[in-house]
């Protein structure tokens, strides 16, 4: 058997232990806990093996504060001769635990070939796998060409602005510095994710006029206006989006269409604290705010996406006296998709075929991840997501990652390193 593949297998226990250590650091986002601790764990481990370690705080980035600093770590191992750099990027933050757990969310429990915990799948298992793969390759082929980089970055779960976006702005993903990127997101070990759909978040506010609740005819109810907006969405906008379909290999099937999620709606009197025991005041709501999450296709233009919502609002205004509204952009991301014939795609595809005995499926993610920043800010197109873990388990109670999946993906990553850096 190939010695490199055997080496990954012999490090199975180390891979599990490292995954457990990462899970046991509760890097919850929000608000952004223990970011420096997990960066130090990764940096100390690789630094002891001769890697250059750079701790990078995203000072001034969205979410960064003295109480919750946005820490990232970038580790680099230089080869013995000139060549390309292959960078593995994983986010270290995890979402809230939520209800329904039957195991300790930060215990890193191992049972029946699975490691359990918040972030096990998304994506501390992928981070651990990339570290083990890189260490094994470097130990067996110390005379490799080019460089290997591993980063653990902040805030992917909240847009990545304190993580990969900041690093890209600082030049860490300049194509002159890094030529290939693998993001070990949990897209299943037999899939290569080429990119993601676009996203536009916005707030829609309907405006009214406050008055006494016993005389609503003297006011103008913003919530009723918003009800008309939602009715128009159901009648015209949702059918319009359902009729759009992409050629991108988006999974699951429903995400091949344009989608819109109503993320939140707030109108009228604010919700009081839990210890408040009184009744609400009698007022006509003078404002109502709807937050929308619009996911769009590579075939769509962002200006068209926004115009569809504006046109919908104008239809409502034409039908309702005194209707006033405002649309506020929150953030937007363009779709991205790496070509199937890109070097990193073909390299990983060949490695998957060797390890799993079948070709990898090319997919596109329904939601965005940090490839958006590597592409748009870093101007680096040769980037994919590939890693262990079942995507459907992300953000779920009793989240887990399979040990064998990590070993298999680690072997794929190690082969990719050898094919790109040890020709």
TrEMBL record:
Coiled coil: none annotated. It comes from the Bacteria. It catalyses: N-succinyl-(2S,6S)-2,6-diaminopimelate + H2O = (2S,6S)-2,6-diaminopimelate + succinate. Gene3D superfamilies: 3.30.70.360, Zn peptidases. Its EC number is 3.5.1.18. Pfam families: M20_dimer (PF07687), Peptidase_M20 (PF01546). Keywords: Cobalt, Hydrolase, Metal-binding, Zinc. Its cofactor is Co(2+); Zn(2+). The keyword GTP-binding does not apply. SUPFAM superfamilies: Bacterial exopeptidase dimerisation domain (SSF55031), Zn-dependent exopeptidases (SSF53187). Residues 195-315 form the Peptidase M20 dimerisation domain. InterPro entries: ArgE/DapE (IPR010182), ArgE/DapE_CS (IPR001261), Bact_exopeptidase_dim_dom (IPR036264), Peptidase_M20 (IPR002933), Peptidase_M20_dimer (IPR011650), Peptidase_M20A (IPR050072). Pathway: Amino-acid biosynthesis; L-lysine biosynthesis via DAP pathway; LL-2,6-diaminopimelate from (S)-tetrahydrodipicolinate (succinylase route): step 3/3. Belongs to the peptidase M20A family. This is Probable succinyl-diaminopimelate desuccinylase. The lineage of its organism: Bacteria, Pseudomonadati, Pseudomonadota, Alphaproteobacteria, Rhodobacterales.
